[in-house]
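[DERIVE STRUCTURE TOKENS]
===
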Amino acid sequence: MNQNNSYQMKIEIWSDIMCPFCYIGKRKFEQALSQFNDKDKVEIIWKSYQLSPNLITDTSISINEYLARHKGISVPQAKEMNDQVTAMAKSVGLTYNLDHSVVANSFDAHRFSHFALDNNKQNEAEEKLFKAYFTDGKNMDDKNTLLEIADEIGLDKDSTEKVLNSELYREAVISDIKEAEAIGVSGVPFFVFDRKYAVSGAQDPSVFLNTLQQAMKEWQTA
């Protein structure tokens, strides 16, 4: 089971694996962390957030068609938005193949992330979930996709299958989403440092680094 380490400063990241800026934000945060001298004193916990909680998985439409309906814009406008995000992702070394993205509800993927957290594999799980959705065009509401990721990061297949075929971690996901509402999260990614500082969005690595340094200084003093 995951043990919260009192010798590490906690950073909580609210995100949705279907959020293009969350994967970009993850990379920018990692760039900052790589320059941070006290990175071994940081514990990262990913928290659940759903951009479209009522979304019904539909493999028959493209992400551009979905975005057009969702935003009330034309399909070419939606494609242009996605092309801009793809270019932004490329600038931090990520490959987005949004033309192949599957319109899918992310709730089970969030349950899977909580299961991974309890097995000290959450960071690996989040990276694989993002890649599966944005780069590989996998259906994130398909249990086989999540079982593949479990296998890749060394989670027990039978235990994972048991989780996915049950309601386990449902309350944990709902709790994260309610907590986000309570602290005023209106968009993701949303980074909370030691429950004192917050950074909203895929900010420049320097913003993350400055916040890391300030939060760590105060955490060590306390």
